[in-house]
Structure formats: structure tokens, C-alpha cells
Amino acid sequence: MKRFISLLAIPIFAFASCAGGAGGGAVTKAGASKGIGADSMEAKLTMEKPRDIRIMADPYLSDAEVAAMREGMMNMPPDTMEASLERGKKMYHDPTLGNGNAGQSCASCHEGGGSIGGAATTEVIKPGGFVFRPKLSIPTLKGAAVSFPKPRGPRRGFMVNLAGMNSMCIAAFNKGQWLDANSQPAVDLQNYIAAFSKGKKWKPGAKKILPSGPVAGAM
Ligand code: HEC
């Protein structure tokens, strides 16, 4: 055990001294007096010489980009949960979400955040032209958000988070394009779906909930 600790201590010490050199030494008076960590966003915005600490904070932004970000962030009107939920609700009822052309919205199957029951069929065309048409029972979304991340796919072959699942429905059933998971619309839609699980305990990996029970011949 003693040997294990001493082995661990070497890299930790090496990292600490390295961070001290690059971050601590370069914090300007403004940042240091407020006790801001060198890698915090606030530190980046209050630095007199941002270049000094961006080695740790963000190596990919140019001085001009940092200045533009600062300007943008300082002039942003506040967003609210209510406004985001309103935007999410609109998307939920929009059959053209992601440029979808199937003529149906999330609400067509998950009406009021629930399930219309039954199953939906989608089409997956595999390389070589083989068409696979899985039939999937339609779950309720009340309690769905707290079940992510979890494995999905016909054989539960890949892990997906809520943003990915929303986009899978957009692609499979609304016949639209995936949303960029970190874009404002994708986050608003997640927020709206998450609201159907308000107060529920987080259970990553939990199975989908079928209020009217399993459908014969469907996954
Ligand atoms: C044609 C019906 C249909 C439409 C339209 C539809 N879904 Fe689904 N949704 C399903 C089915 C079927 C599943 C189960 C998929 C599976 O088992 O892999 C599902 C699963 C989900 C889940 C995961 C639930 C869980 O507990 O695992 C979420 C979240 C979800 N849909 C959100 C959406 C959103 C958001 C939209 C609109 C963009 C949408 N769905 C549109 C049928 C639909």
C-alpha cells in the first residue's frame, strides 16, 4: 500500500508544480485579488493579459475571439428556464423540426409527454441495400429523461444520452436531421423533455416505460 501511494504521489506532484508555473504565476492582479482560479471563465474575462493563462484555459481561441466572446457574454440578456421550455414546447409540436418531412411531430406519438400506445416502425437501410424495419413500442416520456445515458439500438449496442435519443426520434420518425447536441435548440428540447421527469429519481440505464404494456412483435 505504501508503495502504491508513493507511486501515485510523483505524477500528482509533477502536475501541481506544472499548473503552478503556467497558471498561478501568470494571474494578473485583478484576477488574483478576487481569488479566481486561472482556468475559470471569469478569470479569462478579467485578465489584463489573457495570453498568459490561456495555455491552461483555452488554447484554441485567438485574442480577437476572446475579445468578441467577452463582448458577447457581457451584453447577453438573461435567458430563463421558462423561455427555454417555451422554445422546447414549440419544437416538440413542430413537424418540420430538423427539416423533417414525415408530417408528424414528437407530440404525434408522445402526446402530452405520454404515449399514444402501440408501436412505430422505422426503416434502416443497411449497406448493400438490405432494408431493416424495426418495430418499436412507443414509450411515455414521463420519467424518460432520468433514464439516460443508456444503451440503445436493436441489440443495445451503443450508449446514448438524451440529446442523442431526441435526435434519433427526429431522424427515425420525423425524417429530419440530427440537431447539434450543444446547440441552443437541442438544449431547449432536452429541457422540455426533462421537465416530464421533474422530481423523479435519476436512474441511468433504466428501460423505456410502456404504460399500455409491451406490443406483440415489437421491440
Ligand atoms: C412515430 C412515433 C414517434 C415520434 C414522432 C417520436 N418518437 Fe420518440 N420514441 C418513439 C419510439 C417507438 C421510441 C422507442 C425507441 C426505442 O425503443 O429505441 C421512442 C423513444 C423516445 C425517447 C426515449 C424514451 C425512453 O425512456 O427510452 C425519447 C426521449 C423520445 N422518444 C423523444 C422524442 C422526441 C423529442 C420526439 C420529437 C422530436 C419524438 N420522440 C418523436 C416514437 C416516436
Q: How is this structure best summarized?
A:
The protein has 219 residues and is mainly alpha-helical.
Structure description:
The chain is built from nine helices and six strands; from the N terminus they run αααααααββββββαα. With about 220 residues, the chain is mainly alpha-helical. The strands form three sheets. The chain has a two-stranded antiparallel sheet with strand order 1-4. Strands 2-3 form a two-stranded antiparallel ribbon. A two-stranded antiparallel ribbon has the order 5-6. Helix 6 crosses helix 9. The longest helix is centred in the N-terminal third of the chain and has 21 residues. Heme C (HEC) binds next to helix 7, helix 8 and helix 9.
The CATH top-level class label of the largest domain: Mainly Alpha
Number of strands: 6
What's the CATH superfamily of the largest domain, by name?
Cytochrome c-like domain
Major β-sheet annotation: 2 strands, antiparallel
Helix/strand-derived class? mainly alpha
Q: Give the assembly state of these chains.
A: single chain
Order of helices and strands: HHHHHHHEEEEEEHH
